[in-house]
Each structure stands twice: as C-alpha cells, then as structure tokens.
Design goal:
Layout: E1 14-22, H1 26-36, H2 41-49, H3 56-72, E2 81-99, E3 105-121
C-alpha cells in the first residue's frame, strides 16, 4: 500500500546538497555563495579553499557533498560538473538581550541560514 513515489525534482544530469541551520546571516552567506555560482566545480573548490571568509569551510563541505551525491547517487562525471545554483534561505533568528545603561535593554539577533547547492553535468564542447 502507501503512496506512489514522487517524481524527481531535478533533471537527470543534476544533483544537489542542502545544509540547514548554518549559524551566519543569510546576507554574509550569500556573498560566499555568489563567488561559486556558475563556475566549474574544481575552480569553485579552489576558490573556497583560499577564501578568507569564516563560513567558506562550511560552504566547501556542502559543495563536496553535492559532488559526492552526483557521483554516487546519479552516476555523473565529476570532472564535467558545474555549479548551476547556489542559493541561500533564511532560517530562524535567535533573540538575545543585553543590558544597556539606565535600566534599558538592547536586543541582539542571531540569525541562521540554509544553503542549497545544485551541480549539473555539462557536455564538453570539442
């Protein structure tokens, strides 16, 4: 019994990886995601390796996971992969409070983000 299997959301030559609840604001994470959009996977990994941004290690792990998903789950060629999409979503915001002068309170917001990376296999133009 049970439901029928849902159709695959991505094309046959695509794979994706999702990293949820990353402790950084979406705006800062999007700066790193914009660095790798549209690039070949090897160039994107090299750029993340030598980036000075704190979150680039987390983005690199997510990209490596997308590459592994493409190779193991969908039998795609790793050398011909390109980062098709790298987009950031907003997650929850932790609210904290800090005491200020004269009995007041200052609000501190600690945002979280979601990161989704989609890689696509492209045919080499000969």
């Amino acid at each position: 019994m049970g439901k029928a299997k849902a159709p695959r959301a991505l094309a046959d030559n695509e794979a994706r990886a999702v990293n949820k609840m990353i402790r950084i604001s979406p705006q800062k994470l999007n700066l790193v995601a914009a660095m790798i959009r549209g690039k070949k996977v090897s160039a994107a990994l090299a750029e993340l390796e030598f980036s000075r941004k704190r979150i680039s290690g987390e983005v690199k792990k997510t990209l490596e996971s997308a590459i592994a998903n493409a190779a193991n789950n969908h039998d795609l060629d790793v050398d011909s992969l390109v980062v098709k999409e790298a987009f950031v979503g907003k997650a929850l915001v932790m609210k904290r409070f800090s005491p200020r002068g004269r009995g007041r309170v200052g609000s501190i917001q600690k945002p979280f983000s979601h990161l989704t990376i989609v890689v696509r296999e492209v045919e080499e133009a000969a």
